[in-house]
Design goal:
- With about 30 residues, the chain is mainly alpha-helical.
- The chain has one domain.
- The chain has one helix and no strands.
- The longest helix has 27 residues.
- The N and C termini lie far apart (about 40 Å).
Length: about 30
Amino acid sequence: MIDKVKITVVGAGYVGMSLAVLFAQKHNV
């Protein structure tokens, strides 16, 4: 159960970082 929560948190963080990078690239262009 704890492993599943950890994976969910890591996955959410990874998605958040990806969106942040795309958002930053849009602003740079």
